[in-house]
């Protein structure tokens, strides 16, 4: 088995992967990812006890036990570039032998669940409701750096999306990936379901105008109006497509769940986004604990 050089997989002096500063034994196999580092404690406060706490840059990790489940919660920071770091390092922790720097012969699959916030793109999805992403559709380019090919349904969805939204290569070469059937079956009641678009930024890439003009000022309307059979775009944010795409390539089960804090169609913003995300955290932990 080929050895992975020190420059490609950086392991620090305490034997932890570089950015996350985690050792293999400090990671559970069911992981909640959150964008906001402060949200890690908002999740782990519900654990019965915490075994490990690590912090490096925007990456904070707590591992502990809730009921009979061992869980980790890891902050990713904002954006698909950080997802590239987090997904690769989570995988390395379970599927690469840090002593020999070789890939383990047997794959360990992780359950990775993003719990975050998002903006709705349909008028009938109100603020403070919850959306489960059936697909992550990336206009951020991350997965284009990897060898990835959509399945037939995803290819048809993607072609219809490109045609209807008129996104061109100057902006992005979009990609799409479905959620884990293994996980989504647990998140049905009281959740909206639909396609989540992942953007590479918060302002222009999400159609916000402050002092700069936009190259695609009709983007919001085109995303809202997109339809392909039963599929609609429900919301957009900045991490889901990277999690789904890299997770699929690496062999993990991934799901993204969002509390809706803004509706870009009705122009409403949540009166208490913190309360909504707290409710989503509790609901998610209850579901995980009931598996």
| End-to-end Cα distance | 36 Å
Q: In percent terms, what proportion of residues is strand?
A: 25-35%
Structural class: alpha/beta
Shape: globular
N-to-C order of helices and strands: EHEEEHEEEEHEHEHEEHEEH
Number of strands: 14
Which strand order do you get reading across the main beta sheet? 7-12-10-8-13
Uncertain runs are none
Oligomer: single chain
Q: Quick one: biggest sheet?
A: 5 strands, mixed, barrel
Radius of gyration: 19 Å
Instruction: Give the helix tally.
Output: 7
Mean pLDDT: 96
What is the helical fraction, as a range of percent?
25-40%
What does this structure look like?
It is built from 7 helices and 14 strands. Strand 11 and strand 12 (about 230-235) form a beta hairpin. Helix 2 packs parallel to helix 6 (about 240-250). Helices cover about 25% and strands about 30% of the residues. Strands 7-12-10-8-13 form a 5-stranded mixed barrel. Strands 5-6 form a two-stranded antiparallel sheet. The protein has about 290 residues and is of the alpha/beta class. It starts with about 30 loop residues before the first strand and ends with a helix.
């Amino acid at each position: 088995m080929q050895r992975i050089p020190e420059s490609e997989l950086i392991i620090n002096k305490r034997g932890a992967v570089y950015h996350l500063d985690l050792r293999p034994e400090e990671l559970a196999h069911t992981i909640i990812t959150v964008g906001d580092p402060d949200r890690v404690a908002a999740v782990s406060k519900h654990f019965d006890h915490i075994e490990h706490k690590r912090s490096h840059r925007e990456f904070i990790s707590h591992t502990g036990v809730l009921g009979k489940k061992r869980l980790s919660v890891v902050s990713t920071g904002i954006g698909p570039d950080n997802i590239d770091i987090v997904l690769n390092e989570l995988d390395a922790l379970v599927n690469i032998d840090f002593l020999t720097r070789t890939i383990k012969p047997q794959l360990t699959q992780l359950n990775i669940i993003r719990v975050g916030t998002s903006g709705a793109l349909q008028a009938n999805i109100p603020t403070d409701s919850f959306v489960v992403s059936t697909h992550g559709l990336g206009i951020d380019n991350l997965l284009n750096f990897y060898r990835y090919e959509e399945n037939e349904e995803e290819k048809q969805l993607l072609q219809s999306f490109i045609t209807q939204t008129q996104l061109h290569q100057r902006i992005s070469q979009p990609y799409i990936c479905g959620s884990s059937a293994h996980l989504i079956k647990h998140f049905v009641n009281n959740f909206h379901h639909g396609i989540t678009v992942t953007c590479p930024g918060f302002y222009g890439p999400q159609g916000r105008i402050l002092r700069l003009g936009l190259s695609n000022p009709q983007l919001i309307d085109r995303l809202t109006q997109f339809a392909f059979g039963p599929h609609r775009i429900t919301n957009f944010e900045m991490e889901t497509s990277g999690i789904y795409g890299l997770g699929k390539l690496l062999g993990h089960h991934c799901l993204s769940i969002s509390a809706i804090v803004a509706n870009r169609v009705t122009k409403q913003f949540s009166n208490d986004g913190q309360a909504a995300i707290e409710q989503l955290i509790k609901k998610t932990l209850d579901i995980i604990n009931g598996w």
